[in-house]
Amino acid sequence: MEDYRFKVNLGGMIEILSDHLYSSPDVYIRELLQNGVDAITGRKKLESGQDCAHGTEDDTLEGKRDYGCITLDIEEGKSLIFSDNGQGLTEEEIHQFLAIIGESSKRNLENGRIETDYIGRFGIGLLSCFMVSDEIRMLTRSWKDKEGPILEWCGKPDGTYNIKKVEENSSDVGRLQGGACGTSVILLAKPGMESYFTKKVIEELITYYGLLLPFPIMICQDGAERQINPTYLPWEGRSTNQQELLLFGQMMFDEQFFDCVPFQSEEGNVSGVAYIRKFPVLPSARVSHRIYLKNMLLTEKGDNLIPDWAVFTKCIVNATDLRPTASREGFYVDEVLEAAKEVIEDCLTGYIADLAENEPERFRQFFQIHQLTLMSLALATPKLFGTLADYFMFETTRGSKSGYDLRTCGEPLIYAPTEEKYKQLSQLFFAQDKQLINVSYVHSLDLLKRLGAMYQIEVSAVEDWAVEDLMKDLSPEDQDEGFEFLKMANRILKPYDCKAELKYFSPYHLPTFYLMDENTLLRRQIASSRAQSNSLFFNMLDAFASDLSNERAATLYFNYNNPLVRKLAGCEEEKDGKVFVEILYVQALQIGGFSLHNNEMGMLNRNIMTLMERGLSDV
Asked: What's the CA gap between 482 and 476, in Å, rounded?
């Protein structure tokens, strides 16, 4: 049986790169930078076996250039010459690494593995240049053959290429840095891509992708030359104070920060700084970070590396040993990545705990800014819950109370499960100095339950019977006195699915109190929605309502401590009593925060008009 060899259609490959792998043509600069960085790394390994990422003793510009340098020579809107003084390529390597898709010069030829010193891994980076140019022209001289000729490789998107030697008297010799060893890639803008060959765009892309590279990146145009990058990481290799780190973060993100937290993980060789933001951020916010692989920007997304709850940070991260995806716009999720993420998470939680213990005033400032996000953190991180929960604030009938206040109050924690229920009951609880907690805010109920579980405190929802415990039954004499009124009130309220009760309760100036169960509340909401919807939804809403119990579970309590109710109980004419009972019913609904149905609003208006007419007739 004969074996056949796969063939790659280069035009189709370029389409895959541009439409599916790379997010935009911008990445051609990134790919050139990565190739240049890896070439310089390879040269240093050939020279001395040392990793160039650790810096150089010579801090002069010339010393740094000798150590490694990338130069971009721009002809505005027309062409770009991208040069590095790295290891260069021999003719054999050109055939092997530029003509075979997926082959990489960074691969160890003995074991076939990509060495971790290098950024590039897949042997497809240079092809990204076809997104902006119809031809890739490359001049190179290898450090392995320093006295050998300069080679010119010219590749086209149809899959053809040629190689030739450059004559020593050719003008192309000067396109290499000083005619020395290294590589120059020469690109001409193809129609429609001229904007990617302007000094402004190229400088922005170099700054974006390569600002932290540890050797000079020079931009040249019309004889003028300028270095783009500072060539150092401010948190590594020397003593750096917090103010310097904050200034660096401000420069990188164009934003001032509350604080900064350096971190370092041996797993993945990950280091960086988390900057704490000075303004609130929603827990659902998408935060832009700066995440680098061997000092080259990889992504702005912190997915899988920065904890999801850390939206109050912007991070600068540099990793050496994490594995990039093929597009080099993210990392593979593996055990090393998870370990690095855990280190970052521990550093942030440790910072919060340390701030709370040692700088309470500053912690209160931090907590006030990021309270909503920290709620999520407290629920997701049990070891921090005890520290954070004491600072969360809850709305209660005794005013705003902290988690610490609630866990030390010495009584069960009773809460109203909804805003409507809290509005209903708060007056009664407040008047009798009983504590009721409003948990309708985000995370409030979960935090309250977790607080109770941690400190073994009873936490429960308020029940209707508990509300009735705040009321007292009438004395036998008052029961007899109010018996006929109660019968009349029940007849009047029956059309509104409500029954009447006579009780004593505080405050005395509150004539009535309206209480309904969840089914009754839902039935009212359905009726309100039905009144506002078109015929298309009538049947659907009616079907919902039919599933609910028809038993009346709403009660209007009349306060027999109230002078107006006592007078009303003595009313003998049901016609007159009906006006006042209906008005008090609607008033109780409004005080409880319930929306009125159309018939209830009409009833209120009708009764007010009746009272006005009676008043005028007596004038």
From this structure: 10
